[in-house]
Amino acid sequence: MKTIKTEDMNWLDIKQAIEEGYHTIVIGVGSIEQHGPYLPTKTDTVIGEVIAQKVAEKLDKALVGPTIRFGCSEHHLAFPGTISLKFSTLKALVIDYVDSLVRHDFKNIIFLPSHGGNFKILAEAITELQAKYPEKKIAGYTELYDYVDFISKISTESGITKEESGAHAGENETSLMLAIERDLVITERFEPGYLGEFGEKQGDLIFKKGIKELTNNGVLGDPTKATKENGEIYLEKFVDYLTSKVKEMI
Fold first, then answer.
1. What percent of the chain has pLDDT over 90?
2. CATH number of 6-249
3. Which candidate in 24, 47, 52, 72 could, as Cys together with 108 as Cys, close a disulfide (CB 3.0–4.6 Å)?
């Protein structure tokens, strides 16, 4: 096949792939929201799409579904350009997405969120879908703070502190974007944001009151040490980690 991305394939080739055993489909769930004054609003969607593609490539006979580009980003709406779905909208979208896929004999449907605001509602949707389609494997990586901890871990292995790595537009995400879409990163605008402790307490505060409760520039972390080389390392480690998680799911 020329591609494993279903949106770039025609229906006949998708049908043939399924008949040949491509029963797994991987779907990124991103967002369009502010990522500081130097990263594009599509950052989470870009990263999610690349990760979904690379994870699918490492699995045995898997396709990649169209990325869900919008997410639940209410906590970023103080910044222009952010577009947010209601929880109910994203949940309904995920359910409709799966309702379509199960009619085409996909057996394993895997969601990989790349935006923190999507994790909780995605977990709820998956739980409902598992009950609705018990004969299918419908799953997703929905442990938000495990996700944040892993990001911190791979950054510290490259000499970056947990605070610099950050949970939003810090060194880690900025390095990933330098590796994936360098031309969209405005390096001369790099500036640190919130550099304090970040865990469930701070996450809950952001989700309830908005990210400006912690940072005026929309950044959690410090991008100034970000490099393309670090981004390439992070991407490889992240893909390996998520691939192992997906294999456990299916």
1. 95
2. 3.40.50.10310
3. 24
